[in-house]
Amino acid sequence: MDGGGAQRWSAVADEWAASWGRVAAPVWGPMLTAAGVGPGTRVLDVGCGTGELLAHLGALGARGWGVDPAPAMRARAALVPGADVRDGDADRLPFGGSSMDVVVAVNALQFAEDTFGALDEVTRVLVPGGAVAVANWAEGARNDLDVVERAVARAQDDDPLPDGELRAPGGLAAVLAEAGLRPVASGIAPTPWHAADDDRLVRGLLLGEDPATVERLAPVVVAAARPFRTAAGGYVLRNAFRWVVARTPGGSPDPA
Ligand SMILES: C[S@@+](CC[C@H](N)C(=O)[O-])C[C@H]1O[C@@H](n2cnc3c(N)ncnc32)[C@H](O)[C@@H]1O
Question: What Gene3D superfamilies does the annotation carry (predicted)?
Answer without folding.
Answer: Vaccinia Virus protein VP39
